[in-house]
Amino acid sequence: MNAASTVIPLPPQPSLPVVGETGVYPVRRIWCVGRNYLEHIREMGNDERAPPFFFGKHADMLVPDGATIPYPPLTKDLHHEVELVVAMKSGGLNIPADKALEHVYGYAVGIDLTRRDLQIASRKKERPWEVGKSFDYSAPCSAIQPASKIGHPTAGKIWLTVNGKEAQKGDLTEL
């Protein structure tokens, strides 16, 4: 489809800057992993033996590093979790574990913003979490560091401060 065949203008392609590059990384999908951080699993009262699961955020929820984020509507309980972001350069099915890193373009640091009160209300009704997880400005993210330059991190500190106060700290080994 080209722009001439659309009845309204196409929205801009969500993208992130790449450290050391003039080009940008186009973002098509944002897949998030739930229940992948032991401390948070325990904080939320969940079974730490249960496997992680996936949920999505819309790509246009992405917010570049340093942007001002307005407080989202409909919530009185906004939560934030720092995350390691993995930017893929290719996809596939049934990829052997020893070949998985060949599909990674690079890494960034993101924040998963959650309207926790709306998420919990949805969970109690056994409804999808989307209203609590995927809303405007809910996916702040740093520039991407290419794996070709930094390798594939398996350990290292990751933390989040909010208004100058430490809100979360951990190590990549805990994710």
Automatic annotation (TrEMBL):
The keyword Metal-binding applies. It catalyses: acetylpyruvate + H2O = acetate + pyruvate + H(+); oxaloacetate = enol-oxaloacetate; 3-fumarylpyruvate + H2O = fumarate + pyruvate + H(+); a 3-acylpyruvate + H2O = a carboxylate + pyruvate + H(+). Residues 30-174 form the Fumarylacetoacetase-like C-terminal domain. Pfam families: FAA_hydrolase (PF01557). GO terms for molecular function: acetylpyruvate hydrolase activity; acylpyruvate hydrolase activity; metal ion binding; oxaloacetate decarboxylase activity; oxaloacetate tautomerase activity. The keyword Protein biosynthesis does not apply. Its EC number is 3.7.1.5, 4.1.1.112, 5.3.2.2. Keywords: Metal-binding. Belongs to the FAH family. This is Oxaloacetate tautomerase FAHD1, mitochondrial.
